[in-house]
Inverse folding.
Protein backbone atom coordinates (compact mmCIF):
# COMPACT_ATOMS: atom_id res chain seq x y z
CA UNK A 1 0.00 0.00 0.00
CA UNK A 2 1.27 3.47 -0.84
CA UNK A 3 1.95 5.89 1.99
CA UNK A 4 -0.90 8.29 1.16
CA UNK A 5 -3.43 5.47 0.99
CA UNK A 6 -2.25 4.09 4.34
CA UNK A 7 -2.51 7.56 5.88
CA UNK A 8 -6.03 8.04 4.56
CA UNK A 9 -7.13 4.61 5.72
CA UNK A 10 -5.81 5.33 9.20
CA UNK A 11 -7.44 8.76 9.15
CA UNK A 12 -10.83 7.28 8.34
CA UNK A 13 -10.57 4.96 11.34
CA UNK A 14 -9.27 7.82 13.51
CA UNK A 15 -12.24 10.05 12.67
CA UNK A 16 -14.82 7.27 12.79
CA UNK A 17 -13.69 6.18 16.27
CA UNK A 18 -13.61 9.83 17.43
CA UNK A 19 -9.96 9.62 18.51
CA UNK A 20 -9.66 13.34 17.79
CA UNK A 21 -11.69 14.24 20.86
CA UNK A 22 -8.72 13.85 23.23
CA UNK A 23 -6.76 16.39 21.18
CA UNK A 24 -9.34 19.19 21.17
CA UNK A 25 -8.03 22.61 22.08
CA UNK A 26 -8.13 26.11 20.62
CA UNK A 27 -5.58 28.02 18.57
CA UNK A 28 -3.93 29.73 21.56
CA UNK A 29 -1.02 27.87 23.16
CA UNK A 30 -1.79 26.99 26.78
CA UNK A 31 1.85 27.56 27.81
CA UNK A 32 2.11 30.76 25.76
CA UNK A 33 5.11 29.23 24.02
CA UNK A 34 6.38 29.05 20.46
CA UNK A 35 9.00 26.41 19.63
CA UNK A 36 11.22 26.42 16.56
CA UNK A 37 12.64 22.91 16.20
CA UNK A 38 14.32 20.72 13.64
CA UNK A 39 12.14 18.55 11.45
CA UNK A 40 14.19 15.43 12.28
CA UNK A 41 11.96 12.35 12.40
CA UNK A 42 13.50 11.29 15.74
CA UNK A 43 11.96 14.37 17.37
CA UNK A 44 8.35 13.93 16.26
CA UNK A 45 7.26 12.46 19.61
CA UNK A 46 10.49 12.80 21.62
CA UNK A 47 10.70 16.60 21.59
CA UNK A 48 7.22 17.33 23.01
CA UNK A 49 7.57 14.58 25.61
CA UNK A 50 11.07 15.74 26.62
CA UNK A 51 9.73 19.30 27.02
CA UNK A 52 6.56 18.23 28.81
CA UNK A 53 4.32 19.54 26.04
CA UNK A 54 0.96 18.14 25.12
CA UNK A 55 -1.41 19.04 22.31
CA UNK A 56 -2.43 22.68 22.66
CA UNK A 57 0.55 23.77 24.80
CA UNK A 58 2.74 25.43 22.16
CA UNK A 59 3.04 26.64 18.61
CA UNK A 60 5.49 24.24 16.98
CA UNK A 61 7.38 25.39 13.90
CA UNK A 62 9.72 22.90 12.26
CA UNK A 63 12.31 23.15 9.53
CA UNK A 64 15.68 21.69 8.61
CA UNK A 65 18.08 22.56 11.43
CA UNK A 66 15.78 24.82 13.50
CA UNK A 67 17.22 27.73 11.55
CA UNK A 68 16.07 31.23 10.73
CA UNK A 69 17.95 31.67 7.48
CA UNK A 70 16.29 34.91 6.47
CA UNK A 71 14.84 37.61 8.73
CA UNK A 72 11.89 38.08 6.37
CA UNK A 73 11.20 34.43 5.64
CA UNK A 74 8.30 32.22 6.67
CA UNK A 75 9.88 31.00 9.92
CA UNK A 76 10.34 34.52 11.27
CA UNK A 77 6.85 35.45 10.07
CA UNK A 78 5.42 32.45 11.94
CA UNK A 79 7.21 33.44 15.16
CA UNK A 80 5.95 37.02 14.90
CA UNK A 81 2.38 35.83 14.27
CA UNK A 82 2.69 33.51 17.29
CA UNK A 83 3.69 36.49 19.44
CA UNK A 84 1.32 39.15 18.13
CA UNK A 85 -1.77 37.10 17.28
CA UNK A 86 -1.58 33.85 19.21
CA UNK A 87 -0.39 34.95 22.66
CA UNK A 88 3.09 33.41 22.64
CA UNK A 89 5.11 35.06 25.39
CA UNK A 90 8.29 33.00 25.08
CA UNK A 91 10.20 31.34 22.26
CA UNK A 92 12.42 28.26 22.37
CA UNK A 93 14.81 27.43 19.54
CA UNK A 94 15.58 23.71 19.83
CA UNK A 95 18.24 22.13 17.64
CA UNK A 96 19.73 18.69 18.19
CA UNK A 97 22.95 16.73 18.12
CA UNK A 98 23.65 14.58 15.06
CA UNK A 99 21.63 16.90 12.83
CA UNK A 100 21.58 16.37 9.08
CA UNK A 101 22.17 20.10 8.59
CA UNK A 102 25.49 19.87 10.42
CA UNK A 103 28.17 20.37 7.77
CA UNK A 104 25.75 19.63 4.92
CA UNK A 105 27.38 19.85 1.52
CA UNK A 106 25.33 22.09 -0.79
CA UNK A 107 27.17 20.70 -3.82
CA UNK A 108 26.05 17.19 -2.92
CA UNK A 109 22.44 18.36 -2.52
CA UNK A 110 22.54 20.03 -5.93
CA UNK A 111 24.22 16.98 -7.50
CA UNK A 112 21.37 14.88 -6.09
CA UNK A 113 18.86 17.34 -7.55
CA UNK A 114 20.42 16.95 -10.99
CA UNK A 115 20.40 13.15 -10.61
CA UNK A 116 16.66 13.38 -9.82
CA UNK A 117 15.95 15.34 -12.99
CA UNK A 118 16.60 19.03 -12.27
CA UNK A 119 18.34 20.48 -15.30
CA UNK A 120 21.86 21.85 -14.79
CA UNK A 121 20.62 24.79 -16.89
CA UNK A 122 18.10 25.54 -14.13
CA UNK A 123 20.93 25.80 -11.60
CA UNK A 124 22.86 28.06 -13.96
CA UNK A 125 19.80 30.27 -14.47
CA UNK A 126 19.14 30.54 -10.73
CA UNK A 127 22.76 31.48 -10.06
CA UNK A 128 22.68 34.05 -12.90
CA UNK A 129 19.58 35.55 -11.27
CA UNK A 130 21.66 36.17 -8.15
CA UNK A 131 20.42 33.26 -6.06
CA UNK A 132 23.23 31.93 -3.90
CA UNK A 133 22.20 28.27 -3.92
CA UNK A 134 25.25 27.16 -1.95
CA UNK A 135 24.60 29.72 0.79
CA UNK A 136 20.89 28.94 0.83
CA UNK A 137 21.50 25.20 1.23
CA UNK A 138 24.38 25.52 3.69
CA UNK A 139 23.75 24.17 7.15
CA UNK A 140 26.08 24.77 10.07
CA UNK A 141 29.36 23.49 11.45
CA UNK A 142 28.53 23.67 15.16
CA UNK A 143 25.04 23.12 16.60
CA UNK A 144 25.57 25.36 19.64
CA UNK A 145 26.81 28.24 17.46
CA UNK A 146 23.86 27.69 15.13
CA UNK A 147 21.43 27.95 18.04
CA UNK A 148 23.12 31.14 19.26
CA UNK A 149 22.89 32.64 15.76
CA UNK A 150 19.21 31.78 15.35
CA UNK A 151 18.36 33.08 18.84
CA UNK A 152 20.22 36.30 18.05
CA UNK A 153 18.36 36.69 14.74
CA UNK A 154 14.97 36.20 16.42
CA UNK A 155 15.80 38.28 19.52
CA UNK A 156 17.07 41.27 17.53
CA UNK A 157 14.51 41.22 14.73
CA UNK A 158 13.16 44.77 14.35
CA UNK A 159 9.56 43.56 14.79
CA UNK A 160 10.17 41.27 17.79
CA UNK A 161 9.15 42.89 21.08
CA UNK A 162 12.05 43.26 23.52
CA UNK A 163 10.12 41.64 26.38
CA UNK A 164 9.95 38.21 24.70
CA UNK A 165 12.52 35.76 26.10
CA UNK A 166 14.14 33.76 23.32
CA UNK A 167 15.79 30.60 24.64
CA UNK A 168 18.20 28.34 22.80
CA UNK A 169 18.45 24.63 23.54
CA UNK A 170 20.00 21.49 22.10
CA UNK A 171 18.26 18.15 22.56
CA UNK A 172 19.82 14.72 22.41
CA UNK A 173 17.88 12.67 19.84
CA UNK A 174 18.91 9.55 21.75
CA UNK A 175 17.82 10.47 25.29
CA UNK A 176 15.77 13.66 25.03
CA UNK A 177 18.16 15.47 27.39
CA UNK A 178 17.97 19.23 26.90
CA UNK A 179 21.00 21.50 27.22
CA UNK A 180 20.47 25.25 27.59
CA UNK A 181 22.67 27.21 25.20
CA UNK A 182 20.96 30.59 25.63
CA UNK A 183 18.88 31.50 28.67
CA UNK A 184 16.45 34.02 27.24
CA UNK A 185 15.66 35.41 30.67
CA UNK A 186 19.21 36.73 30.92
CA UNK A 187 18.62 38.81 27.76
CA UNK A 188 15.29 40.18 29.00
CA UNK A 189 16.04 41.54 32.48
CA UNK A 190 12.65 43.27 32.69
CA UNK A 191 10.93 39.87 32.84
CA UNK A 192 10.04 38.76 36.34
Amino acid sequence: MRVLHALLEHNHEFVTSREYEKFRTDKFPDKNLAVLACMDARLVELLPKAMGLKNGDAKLIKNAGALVTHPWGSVMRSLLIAVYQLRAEEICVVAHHDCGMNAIDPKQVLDNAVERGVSPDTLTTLRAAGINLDGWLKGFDNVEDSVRHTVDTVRHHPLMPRDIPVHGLVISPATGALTVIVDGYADTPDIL
In short: The chain has a mean pLDDT of 95. The longest strand covers residues 90-96. The domain at 26-104+139-187 is CATH 3.40.1050.10 (Beta-carbonic Anhydrase; Chain A).
